[in-house]
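Deliverable D4.2, example record:
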Amino acid sequence: MAEPRAEATLRWLKPGAVRLDALPPLSLYLHVPWCLRKCPYCDFNSHELGGGRPDAALQARYVDALVADLEASLPLVWGRPVISVFIGGGTPSLLEPGQVDRLLAAVRARLPLEPGCEITLEANPGTFERERFAAFRAAGVTRLSVGVQSFDDAALAAIGRVHDGAQARAALEEAARAFDTFNLDLMYALPGQDLAALARDLATALSFAPPHLSIYHLSLEPNTRFATRPPEGLPDDDLASDMLDLIAERTAAGGLARYEVSAFARPGHRCVHNQNYWHFGDYLGLGAGAHGKLSFAERVVRQVRWREPQAYVEQALAGHAVSNEHEVGAAELPFEFMLNALRLREGFELGLFAERTGLSPTALEPGLTRALERGLLERQGARLLPTAHGFDFLSDLQQLFLAA
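Output generated by the structure prediction step:
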Protein backbone atom coordinates (compact mmCIF):
# COMPACT_ATOMS: atom_id res chain seq x y z
CA MET A 1 0.00 0.00 0.00
CA ALA A 2 1.34 3.46 -0.91
CA GLU A 3 2.61 5.62 1.91
CA PRO A 4 0.22 8.52 2.72
CA ARG A 5 1.60 11.81 1.42
CA ALA A 6 1.53 13.46 4.85
CA GLU A 7 3.69 10.67 6.30
CA ALA A 8 6.05 10.80 3.33
CA THR A 9 6.45 14.56 3.81
CA LEU A 10 7.32 14.12 7.49
CA ARG A 11 9.90 11.48 6.54
CA TRP A 12 11.73 13.95 4.31
CA LEU A 13 11.76 16.54 7.10
CA LYS A 14 13.74 14.34 9.49
CA PRO A 15 17.50 14.91 10.08
CA GLY A 16 19.63 13.90 7.10
CA ALA A 17 23.15 13.73 5.73
CA VAL A 18 23.35 17.27 4.29
CA ARG A 19 22.29 20.73 5.41
CA LEU A 20 20.87 23.36 3.05
CA ASP A 21 20.81 26.92 4.36
CA ALA A 22 18.15 27.89 1.80
CA LEU A 23 15.96 26.02 -0.65
CA PRO A 24 16.65 26.54 -4.37
CA PRO A 25 14.20 28.11 -6.84
CA LEU A 26 11.22 25.90 -7.71
CA SER A 27 9.84 25.13 -11.18
CA LEU A 28 6.81 23.08 -12.21
CA TYR A 29 6.88 20.52 -15.03
CA LEU A 30 3.60 19.14 -16.44
CA HIS A 31 3.83 16.14 -18.80
CA VAL A 32 1.28 15.45 -21.55
CA PRO A 33 2.07 11.98 -22.93
CA TRP A 34 0.29 11.79 -26.30
CA CYS A 35 1.62 12.20 -29.84
CA LEU A 36 0.01 11.87 -33.26
CA ARG A 37 2.85 9.49 -34.11
CA LYS A 38 5.83 8.20 -32.14
CA CYS A 39 9.05 9.44 -33.74
CA PRO A 40 11.59 6.63 -34.31
CA TYR A 41 14.37 8.53 -32.48
CA CYS A 42 12.28 9.52 -29.44
CA ASP A 43 12.97 7.96 -26.04
CA PHE A 44 10.63 10.26 -24.09
CA ASN A 45 7.52 8.91 -22.41
CA SER A 46 5.22 9.57 -25.36
CA HIS A 47 2.35 7.41 -26.58
CA GLU A 48 0.93 7.37 -30.09
CA LEU A 49 -2.80 7.96 -30.48
CA GLY A 50 -4.39 5.87 -33.21
CA GLY A 51 -7.28 8.25 -33.83
CA GLY A 52 -5.59 11.66 -33.89
CA ARG A 53 -6.20 14.06 -31.00
CA PRO A 54 -7.23 12.75 -27.56
CA ASP A 55 -10.99 13.07 -27.23
CA ALA A 56 -12.60 15.58 -24.89
CA ALA A 57 -13.32 13.05 -22.14
CA LEU A 58 -9.73 11.74 -22.14
CA GLN A 59 -8.30 15.26 -22.02
CA ALA A 60 -10.59 16.29 -19.16
CA ARG A 61 -9.79 13.19 -17.12
CA TYR A 62 -6.06 13.64 -17.64
CA VAL A 63 -6.19 17.27 -16.52
CA ASP A 64 -8.24 16.13 -13.50
CA ALA A 65 -5.40 13.71 -12.69
CA LEU A 66 -2.75 16.44 -13.00
CA VAL A 67 -4.71 18.66 -10.62
CA ALA A 68 -5.16 15.78 -8.15
CA ASP A 69 -1.43 15.07 -8.37
CA LEU A 70 -0.70 18.73 -7.64
CA GLU A 71 -3.09 18.74 -4.69
CA ALA A 72 -1.41 15.69 -3.16
CA SER A 73 2.04 17.25 -3.67
CA LEU A 74 1.31 20.62 -2.05
CA PRO A 75 2.63 19.64 1.42
CA LEU A 76 6.06 19.09 -0.18
CA VAL A 77 6.28 22.66 -1.52
CA TRP A 78 4.13 24.77 0.83
CA GLY A 79 4.80 28.48 0.46
CA ARG A 80 7.49 28.16 -2.19
CA PRO A 81 7.05 30.50 -5.18
CA VAL A 82 7.26 29.01 -8.68
CA ILE A 83 9.62 30.72 -11.15
CA SER A 84 8.62 28.76 -14.27
CA VAL A 85 6.05 26.30 -15.60
CA PHE A 86 6.81 23.98 -18.52
CA ILE A 87 4.15 21.89 -20.26
CA GLY A 88 6.05 19.21 -22.15
CA GLY A 89 5.49 15.88 -23.78
CA GLY A 90 4.61 14.15 -25.95
CA THR A 91 2.79 16.89 -27.80
CA PRO A 92 1.06 19.21 -25.34
CA SER A 93 -0.41 21.28 -28.18
CA LEU A 94 -2.78 18.34 -28.75
CA LEU A 95 -4.65 19.61 -25.66
CA GLU A 96 -7.50 21.95 -26.37
CA PRO A 97 -6.72 25.53 -25.29
CA GLY A 98 -9.65 25.32 -22.87
CA GLN A 99 -7.98 22.43 -21.05
CA VAL A 100 -4.69 24.32 -20.90
CA ASP A 101 -6.60 27.28 -19.49
CA ARG A 102 -8.25 25.05 -16.86
CA LEU A 103 -4.91 23.47 -15.94
CA LEU A 104 -3.09 26.79 -15.53
CA ALA A 105 -6.00 28.23 -13.53
CA ALA A 106 -5.74 25.25 -11.17
CA VAL A 107 -1.99 25.81 -10.83
CA ARG A 108 -2.44 29.53 -10.05
CA ALA A 109 -5.07 28.71 -7.44
CA ARG A 110 -2.72 26.37 -5.60
CA LEU A 111 0.81 27.71 -6.04
CA PRO A 112 2.22 31.24 -5.79
CA LEU A 113 3.69 32.11 -9.19
CA GLU A 114 6.47 34.69 -9.33
CA PRO A 115 5.55 37.92 -11.14
CA GLY A 116 6.35 37.39 -14.80
CA CYS A 117 6.54 33.62 -14.30
CA GLU A 118 7.67 31.96 -17.55
CA ILE A 119 5.00 29.50 -18.79
CA THR A 120 6.15 27.41 -21.75
CA LEU A 121 4.17 25.00 -23.91
CA GLU A 122 5.74 22.64 -26.44
CA ALA A 123 4.04 22.61 -29.84
CA ASN A 124 4.59 20.66 -33.03
CA PRO A 125 3.82 22.09 -36.50
CA GLY A 126 1.79 18.95 -37.28
CA THR A 127 -0.79 20.06 -34.70
CA PHE A 128 -0.70 23.69 -35.79
CA GLU A 129 -3.87 25.73 -36.25
CA ARG A 130 -3.53 29.50 -36.31
CA GLU A 131 -6.24 30.21 -33.73
CA ARG A 132 -4.86 27.61 -31.30
CA PHE A 133 -1.59 29.48 -30.76
CA ALA A 134 -3.45 32.70 -29.92
CA ALA A 135 -5.77 30.74 -27.63
CA PHE A 136 -2.80 29.22 -25.78
CA ARG A 137 -1.48 32.75 -25.25
CA ALA A 138 -4.89 33.85 -23.92
CA ALA A 139 -4.82 30.87 -21.51
CA GLY A 140 -1.63 32.23 -19.94
CA VAL A 141 1.17 30.56 -21.91
CA THR A 142 3.99 33.10 -22.33
CA ARG A 143 6.48 31.10 -24.38
CA LEU A 144 6.03 28.55 -27.16
CA SER A 145 8.63 25.90 -28.01
CA VAL A 146 8.12 24.77 -31.60
CA GLY A 147 9.54 21.37 -32.56
CA VAL A 148 10.52 22.09 -36.18
CA GLN A 149 13.61 19.79 -36.37
CA SER A 150 14.10 20.59 -40.10
CA PHE A 151 12.52 22.51 -42.98
CA ASP A 152 13.50 19.88 -45.53
CA ASP A 153 10.60 17.58 -46.46
CA ALA A 154 12.84 14.58 -47.20
CA ALA A 155 14.71 14.97 -43.92
CA LEU A 156 11.46 15.29 -41.98
CA ALA A 157 10.13 12.12 -43.58
CA ALA A 158 13.38 10.28 -42.82
CA ILE A 159 13.05 11.00 -39.10
CA GLY A 160 9.33 10.22 -38.97
CA ARG A 161 7.91 13.70 -38.39
CA VAL A 162 4.23 14.27 -39.22
CA HIS A 163 4.69 17.81 -40.58
CA ASP A 164 6.37 19.22 -43.66
CA GLY A 165 8.47 22.32 -44.26
CA ALA A 166 5.50 24.50 -45.22
CA GLN A 167 3.70 23.65 -41.98
CA ALA A 168 6.89 24.42 -40.04
CA ARG A 169 7.15 27.86 -41.63
CA ALA A 170 3.48 28.64 -41.00
CA ALA A 171 3.75 27.59 -37.35
CA LEU A 172 6.79 29.80 -36.79
CA GLU A 173 5.13 32.78 -38.43
CA GLU A 174 2.19 32.43 -36.08
CA ALA A 175 4.43 31.81 -33.03
CA ALA A 176 6.23 35.07 -33.77
CA ARG A 177 2.89 36.85 -34.16
CA ALA A 178 1.23 35.41 -31.03
CA PHE A 179 4.17 35.39 -28.57
CA ASP A 180 6.78 37.89 -27.40
CA THR A 181 9.28 35.06 -27.08
CA PHE A 182 9.47 31.57 -28.54
CA ASN A 183 11.91 28.74 -29.02
CA LEU A 184 12.71 26.99 -32.30
CA ASP A 185 13.91 23.37 -32.03
CA LEU A 186 16.21 22.13 -34.80
CA MET A 187 18.13 18.87 -35.29
CA TYR A 188 21.31 18.15 -37.22
CA ALA A 189 23.29 15.09 -38.39
CA LEU A 190 20.09 13.85 -40.03
CA PRO A 191 20.01 10.95 -42.51
CA GLY A 192 21.56 12.09 -45.81
CA GLN A 193 22.26 15.60 -44.50
CA ASP A 194 25.41 17.40 -45.66
CA LEU A 195 26.82 20.82 -44.76
CA ALA A 196 24.90 22.53 -47.57
CA ALA A 197 21.59 21.06 -46.39
CA LEU A 198 22.30 22.11 -42.81
CA ALA A 199 23.23 25.60 -44.00
CA ARG A 200 19.83 25.86 -45.71
CA ASP A 201 18.02 24.76 -42.54
CA LEU A 202 19.98 27.29 -40.47
CA ALA A 203 19.31 30.09 -42.95
CA THR A 204 15.58 29.36 -42.87
CA ALA A 205 15.53 29.12 -39.08
CA LEU A 206 17.41 32.40 -38.67
CA SER A 207 15.12 34.15 -41.15
CA PHE A 208 12.41 33.99 -38.48
CA ALA A 209 14.72 35.85 -36.03
CA PRO A 210 13.98 33.33 -33.25
CA PRO A 211 14.62 34.74 -29.77
CA HIS A 212 15.85 31.27 -28.75
CA LEU A 213 17.17 28.35 -30.76
CA SER A 214 17.77 24.80 -29.48
CA ILE A 215 19.82 22.56 -31.76
CA TYR A 216 20.27 18.86 -31.06
CA HIS A 217 22.42 16.16 -32.65
CA LEU A 218 20.23 13.24 -33.81
CA SER A 219 21.25 10.35 -31.57
CA LEU A 220 20.29 6.68 -31.54
CA GLU A 221 18.84 6.19 -28.08
CA PRO A 222 18.16 2.76 -26.52
CA ASN A 223 14.59 1.47 -26.74
CA THR A 224 13.79 3.44 -29.89
CA ARG A 225 13.10 2.19 -33.42
CA PHE A 226 16.27 3.85 -34.70
CA ALA A 227 18.34 1.96 -32.09
CA THR A 228 17.37 -1.37 -33.65
CA ARG A 229 16.92 -0.17 -37.25
CA PRO A 230 19.26 2.79 -37.80
CA PRO A 231 18.48 4.96 -40.81
CA GLU A 232 20.88 5.00 -43.73
CA GLY A 233 23.14 7.91 -44.54
CA LEU A 234 23.86 9.20 -41.04
CA PRO A 235 26.79 11.67 -41.05
CA ASP A 236 30.02 10.36 -39.53
CA ASP A 237 31.65 11.97 -36.49
CA ASP A 238 33.93 14.22 -38.55
CA LEU A 239 31.04 15.60 -40.58
CA ALA A 240 28.92 16.02 -37.44
CA SER A 241 31.77 18.00 -35.87
CA ASP A 242 31.97 20.23 -38.96
CA MET A 243 28.22 20.72 -38.68
CA LEU A 244 28.54 21.89 -35.10
CA ASP A 245 31.22 24.38 -36.16
CA LEU A 246 28.86 25.69 -38.85
CA ILE A 247 26.05 26.02 -36.28
CA ALA A 248 28.29 28.00 -33.93
CA GLU A 249 29.41 30.28 -36.78
CA ARG A 250 25.95 30.97 -38.25
CA THR A 251 24.15 31.45 -34.93
CA ALA A 252 26.78 33.92 -33.70
CA ALA A 253 26.50 35.86 -36.96
CA GLY A 254 22.71 35.85 -36.47
CA GLY A 255 22.96 37.47 -33.02
CA LEU A 256 22.39 34.33 -30.94
CA ALA A 257 24.80 33.56 -28.09
CA ARG A 258 25.49 29.94 -27.16
CA TYR A 259 24.89 29.79 -23.41
CA GLU A 260 24.42 26.02 -23.03
CA VAL A 261 25.56 22.96 -24.98
CA SER A 262 22.45 22.93 -27.20
CA ALA A 263 20.91 26.36 -26.50
CA PHE A 264 21.41 29.72 -28.25
CA ALA A 265 19.56 32.92 -27.29
CA ARG A 266 19.27 36.63 -27.85
CA PRO A 267 19.75 38.86 -24.77
CA GLY A 268 16.84 38.48 -22.35
CA HIS A 269 15.47 35.31 -23.97
CA ARG A 270 17.28 32.48 -22.20
CA CYS A 271 14.96 29.71 -21.04
CA VAL A 272 14.30 30.30 -17.33
CA HIS A 273 12.94 26.79 -16.83
CA ASN A 274 15.94 25.00 -18.32
CA GLN A 275 18.38 27.30 -16.56
CA ASN A 276 16.83 26.21 -13.28
CA TYR A 277 17.60 22.59 -14.18
CA TRP A 278 21.19 23.47 -15.05
CA HIS A 279 21.64 25.44 -11.82
CA PHE A 280 20.44 22.36 -9.89
CA GLY A 281 17.20 24.05 -8.89
CA ASP A 282 14.10 22.15 -7.80
CA TYR A 283 11.22 21.06 -10.00
CA LEU A 284 7.96 19.37 -9.15
CA GLY A 285 7.23 16.97 -12.02
CA LEU A 286 3.58 16.01 -12.55
CA GLY A 287 2.11 13.75 -15.23
CA ALA A 288 2.68 10.29 -16.68
CA GLY A 289 6.31 9.28 -16.20
CA ALA A 290 7.33 12.75 -14.98
CA HIS A 291 10.51 13.08 -12.94
CA GLY A 292 11.01 15.63 -10.17
CA LYS A 293 13.69 16.88 -7.80
CA LEU A 294 12.80 18.47 -4.47
CA SER A 295 15.08 19.79 -1.73
CA PHE A 296 14.42 19.85 1.98
CA ALA A 297 16.47 21.25 4.84
CA GLU A 298 18.67 18.15 5.13
CA ARG A 299 18.19 16.11 1.95
CA VAL A 300 17.53 16.11 -1.79
CA VAL A 301 14.79 13.79 -3.10
CA ARG A 302 13.98 12.53 -6.59
CA GLN A 303 10.49 11.34 -7.60
CA VAL A 304 9.01 9.48 -10.57
CA ARG A 305 5.32 9.24 -11.52
CA TRP A 306 3.60 6.16 -12.96
CA ARG A 307 4.72 5.88 -16.58
CA GLU A 308 1.74 4.38 -18.43
CA PRO A 309 -0.90 7.12 -18.95
CA GLN A 310 -3.95 5.13 -17.85
CA ALA A 311 -2.14 3.82 -14.75
CA TYR A 312 -1.01 7.36 -13.96
CA VAL A 313 -4.55 8.74 -14.22
CA GLU A 314 -5.98 6.03 -11.97
CA GLN A 315 -3.21 6.34 -9.38
CA ALA A 316 -3.21 10.16 -9.38
CA LEU A 317 -6.98 10.35 -8.89
CA ALA A 318 -6.56 7.91 -5.99
CA GLY A 319 -3.85 10.11 -4.44
CA HIS A 320 -0.88 7.85 -5.29
CA ALA A 321 0.68 9.39 -8.42
CA VAL A 322 4.29 8.77 -7.30
CA SER A 323 5.53 5.33 -8.38
CA ASN A 324 8.87 5.66 -6.60
CA GLU A 325 11.01 8.22 -4.84
CA HIS A 326 14.41 8.16 -3.20
CA GLU A 327 16.88 10.37 -1.40
CA VAL A 328 19.97 11.33 -3.39
CA GLY A 329 22.95 10.18 -1.35
CA ALA A 330 25.63 12.66 -0.35
CA ALA A 331 28.20 10.73 -2.42
CA GLU A 332 26.02 11.11 -5.55
CA LEU A 333 25.35 14.85 -5.22
CA PRO A 334 28.65 16.12 -6.71
CA PHE A 335 28.04 14.21 -9.95
CA GLU A 336 24.34 15.14 -10.08
CA PHE A 337 25.22 18.83 -9.64
CA MET A 338 28.06 18.81 -12.17
CA LEU A 339 26.03 16.83 -14.72
CA ASN A 340 23.80 19.90 -14.95
CA ALA A 341 26.05 22.88 -14.17
CA LEU A 342 28.80 21.94 -16.61
CA ARG A 343 26.35 22.21 -19.53
CA LEU A 344 26.49 26.00 -19.13
CA ARG A 345 29.08 27.89 -21.18
CA GLU A 346 29.60 30.33 -18.30
CA GLY A 347 29.96 27.55 -15.71
CA PHE A 348 29.00 28.31 -12.13
CA GLU A 349 30.16 30.01 -8.95
CA LEU A 350 31.70 27.50 -6.55
CA GLY A 351 29.44 28.76 -3.76
CA LEU A 352 26.40 27.57 -5.73
CA PHE A 353 27.53 23.98 -5.24
CA ALA A 354 27.41 24.34 -1.45
CA GLU A 355 24.12 26.23 -1.64
CA ARG A 356 22.34 23.63 -3.77
CA THR A 357 23.80 20.40 -2.31
CA GLY A 358 24.43 21.25 1.33
CA LEU A 359 27.97 19.89 0.95
CA SER A 360 31.35 21.55 1.33
CA PRO A 361 33.07 22.46 -1.97
CA THR A 362 35.86 20.12 -0.91
CA ALA A 363 33.57 17.28 -2.03
CA LEU A 364 34.39 18.35 -5.61
CA GLU A 365 38.16 18.36 -5.18
CA PRO A 366 39.03 14.90 -6.57
CA GLY A 367 37.14 15.57 -9.81
CA LEU A 368 38.29 19.19 -10.00
CA THR A 369 41.92 18.20 -9.74
CA ARG A 370 41.62 15.70 -12.60
CA ALA A 371 39.57 18.10 -14.77
CA LEU A 372 42.03 20.98 -14.31
CA GLU A 373 45.03 18.73 -15.01
CA ARG A 374 43.45 17.51 -18.26
CA GLY A 375 42.55 20.99 -19.44
CA LEU A 376 38.81 20.28 -19.43
CA LEU A 377 37.97 22.88 -16.78
CA GLU A 378 39.30 26.29 -15.82
CA ARG A 379 38.99 28.64 -12.84
CA GLN A 380 38.12 32.30 -13.19
CA GLY A 381 38.20 33.54 -9.61
CA ALA A 382 35.39 31.74 -7.78
CA ARG A 383 33.87 30.58 -11.08
CA LEU A 384 34.46 27.18 -12.68
CA LEU A 385 33.70 26.68 -16.35
CA PRO A 386 34.45 24.18 -19.10
CA THR A 387 37.31 25.03 -21.44
CA ALA A 388 36.60 24.88 -25.18
CA HIS A 389 38.06 21.36 -25.08
CA GLY A 390 35.92 20.46 -22.07
CA PHE A 391 32.81 21.76 -23.80
CA ASP A 392 33.55 19.59 -26.84
CA PHE A 393 34.10 16.51 -24.64
CA LEU A 394 31.47 17.28 -22.04
CA SER A 395 30.57 13.69 -21.14
CA ASP A 396 34.24 12.94 -20.38
CA LEU A 397 34.36 16.00 -18.13
CA GLN A 398 31.14 15.13 -16.30
CA GLN A 399 32.25 11.55 -15.65
CA LEU A 400 35.24 12.78 -13.66
CA PHE A 401 32.80 13.62 -10.85
CA LEU A 402 31.22 10.18 -10.56
CA ALA A 403 31.48 8.74 -7.05
CA ALA A 404 34.28 6.19 -6.78
